[in-house]
Design brief:
Strand content: 5-15%
Largest sheet: 4 strands, mixed
CATH topology of the largest domain: Muramoyl-pentapeptide Carboxypeptidase, domain 2
InterPro entries: Zn_M74/Hedgehog-like (IPR009045)
Number of helices: 7
Structural class: alpha+beta
Order of helices and strands: HHHEEHEHEEEEEHEHEE
Radius of gyration: 19 Å
Number of domains: 2
Shape: globular
Protein name: Membrane protein
CATH class of the largest domain: Alpha Beta
Keywords: Membrane, Transmembrane, Transmembrane helix
C-alpha cells in the first residue's frame, strides 16, 4: 500500500508541475525524503530553465514592474513557460497598458509547462503547447486601481457574473460555479478600463489568434472583435480572467 501512496504523489506532482514526479521518485532513495525532494526539485527546476529553450519554450518573468506572475506558485510549479513569440506578446501588451495607464501591473496566470506539446495542464482543456496564456483581471477599491492585486489568491475563480448561467447543465464540464469560495474572496471591484484596454490591444495584435472572455463582459466593456470569442459551455468560465492564444 505504501507504493500506492507514492504512485499517487508521483501522479499528482506530474500533473501539477510536469517534472515534480521525477524529483519525488528520486527522493525515494533517501531516508530523509522531504529534504531530498526539495533538493532534487530545485535541480529539476534549474534544469528546466536551462533546457526549455532547446524545446522552444521560455519562462515568463516571475517578478517585474509591468509584467509578472500573479503568484510565485506559478513559477515554482513551472507553469509559466511559453513559446518566445507569446512572451513577446505578453511583454508588449503589459508595456502598452503601463504606457496608457502609468503604474499598471499585468499579472500572468497559467501559461504552459517547459517541455513536450500535448502534455495536459490540468484543469485546462488547452495550454498544452506553450501558445496560450491566461491574464488576471485588474481590480480597484473605492475607485482606486490596486497594482498587482487580485480578488482571488490564485487569480482564478473570482467570477464577475452572478446571474443565471446561459449554459445548460452538462457533464462532463469544467464550467464550475465555485460558489463556496466567493464569500471568502477579497472585497475588491473589477477595473474595466484597464481590462478593456488590454483586450483591445490583444485584439489588434496580428500575432494573436483568439481571446476568450465571457460574452456578457465583452458587451459591458464594448470590446467586441472577431478574435474575442466564447470558449464554449464545457470549458472553464472566463469571467475571472482573460485567455489569449497565438494564431
Amino acid at each position: 500500500m505504501r507504493w500506492v501512496g507514492h504512485g499517487v504523489v508521483f501522479v499528482l506532482l506530474t500533473l501539477l508541475t510536469q517534472l515534480g514526479g521525477l524529483a519525488w521518485l528520486g527522493a525515494l532513495a533517501f531516508r530523509r525524503r522531504f529534504p531530498a525532494f526539495a533538493g532534487l526539485y530545485a535541480v529539476v527546476f534549474l534544469a528546466a530553465h536551462l533546457l526549455a529553450p532547446t524545446y522552444g519554450r521560455v519562462a515568463l518573468p516571475c517578478f517585474g514592474d509591468a509584467l509578472r506572475s500573479q503568484s510565485p506558485a506559478y513559477c515554482l510549479m513551472m507553469r509559466n513557460f511559453v513559446v518566445p513569440e507569446l512572451r513577446h506578446v505578453a511583454q508588449d501588451t503589459a508595456q502598452n497598458a503601463n504606457a496608457a495607464f502609468p503604474g499598471t501591473v499585468t499579472l500572468t496566470l497559467d501559461g504552459g509547462f517547459p517541455f513536450w506539446d500535448e502534455f495536459p495542464m490540468l484543469p485546462h482543456l488547452s495550454h498544452d503547447d506553450g501558445e496560450k496564456l491566461d491574464l488576471a483581471f485588474y481590480y480597484q477599491r473605492d475607485g482606486e486601481y490596486l497594482p498587482g492585486t487580485t480578488r482571488s489568491p490564485i487569480g482564478f475563480w473570482a467570477f464577475e457574473l452572478t446571474g443565471p448561467d446561459a449554459c445548460p447543465p452538462a457533464f462532463p464540464t469544467m464550467r464550475w460555479g465555485m460558489s463556496w469560495i466567493q464569500p471568502l474572496l477579497r472585497d475588491l471591484r473589477f477595473e474595466p478600463e484597464r481590462t478593456a484596454h488590454v483586450i483591445r490591444v490583444l485584439s489588434a495584435d496580428p500575432r494573436v489568434g483568439k481571446i476568450f472572455v465571457e460574452p456578457e463582459l465583452v458587451t459591458a466593456m464594448s470590446v467586441q472583435h472577431e478574435k474575442v470569442r466564447f470558449q464554449g459551455c464545457r470549458a472553464a468560465r472566463h469571467d475571472d480572467h482573460i485567455h489569449f492564444q497565438l494564431k
